Amino acid sequence: MADPRIINVELDERTILWRSADIEQERRIAIFDLIEGNHFAPQREHADGYAGPYRIALSVEEGRLGIAIHREDDSHLETYVLGLGRFRRPIKDYFAICDSYYAAIRNATPAQIETVDMARRGIHNEAAELLKERLEGKIEIDFDTARRLFTLICVLHIKG
């Protein structure tokens, strides 16, 4: 029986040089929320009919996202490689708006915080739609899964 969901996420820690407490909290929340509820269905059929659940490992190398997909028993199924060129701008914008958001939380009025948060959610939503589009035909994901995966892609891009 198919169980198209992620049950474990690992990030390639070699690519993450530094994380602030705020970013670390975002990473923990994204992974927790992703595990709690997601839809993740690779579209390639496997000879034995395996259709989940999945363990994934995310890495970024030379401008490409690697999504290593493993069975529940941790045996490797396949790895998708996705060019991240179209994500450069959303990642840059997301980092900038997150910096503004964290500063606003500490110093701004509730109305100012809400304005910055709306902008942050807008960028995040657009990037999630782009991720869904780029994975189309390879991995079927829902919008919430795409949002959380985008957060983790951003974490992998932190260089210090």
How would you describe this protein?
The chain is built from 4 helices and 6 strands; from the N terminus they run βαββββααβα. By secondary structure, it is α+β, with helices and mostly antiparallel strands. The chain has a 4-stranded mixed β-sheet with strand order 1-3-4-5, with helices on one face. Strands 2-6 form a two-stranded antiparallel sheet. A hairpin with a 5-residue loop joins strand 4 (64-70) and strand 5 (76-83). Helix 1 (21-36) packs antiparallel against helix 4 and helix 3 crosses helix 4 (143-156). The mean pLDDT is 87.
List the helices and strands and how they pair.
Elements: E1 6-11, H1 21-36, E2 40-42, E3 54-61, E4 64-70, E5 76-83, H2 88-107, H3 110-135, E6 139-141, H4 143-156
Parallel strand pairs: 1-3
Antiparallel strand pairs: 2-6, 3-4, 4-5
Helix pairs in contact: 1-4, 2-3, 3-4
